[in-house]
Write a structure and sequence with these properties.
The protein has 127 residues and is an alpha+beta fold. The chain has a single domain, classed as OB fold (Dihydrolipoamide Acetyltransferase, E2P), CATH 2.40.50.1020. It has 2 helices and 10 strands. The longest helix has 15 residues. The mean pLDDT is 89.
């Protein structure tokens, strides 16, 4: 069963399938939401409040949606690449268009380790 996140502001209501969320990005008191289809919304809600909404409305969403650093909540199902040295996170949209986010090294490392833990034992590359 598909789960939804409902975001209400004074003037609007938005109902989004969790799987369609690519990421949320903080911008002072606003939060930008990018869907995997490329559609973008901006809310007059800070990212901390978005995180609270996710915890309340979508139990277990932290398995799919994860806070990465101060500015982003990303959908782990859309991760294509994590590059620690370049501090880059590449997410793939539903049209297979890559979306690159610049994220500081420590939160990226935590994300990478979290994904490795989910997969079981990390695989070391030779080289």
């Amino acid at each position: 069963m598909e789960r939804y996140l409902i975001i209400k502001t004074r003037d609007e209501l938005l109902r989004i399938k969790i799987g369609q969320i690519l990421y949320f990005e903080a911008d002072r008191n606003y939060t930008k939401l990018l869907l995997s289809s490329g559609i973008q919304f901006t809310f007059a809600i800070n990212i901390g409040k978005i995180e609270e909404l996710l915890e309340r409305q979508v139990a277990g969403s932290n398995k799919i949606l994860m806070r990465v650093g101060k500015s982003h909540i990303i959908n782990k199902n859309h991760i294509l690449q994590i590059n620690l040295p370049k501090q880059r996170l590449l997410l793939l949209s539903s049209e297979n268009k890559p979306k690159e986010l610049v994220i500081s090294k420590d939160p990226l490392k935590v994300l990478k380790e979290s994904l490795e833990k989910e997969m079981g034992k990390p695989v070391e590359k030779e080289g």
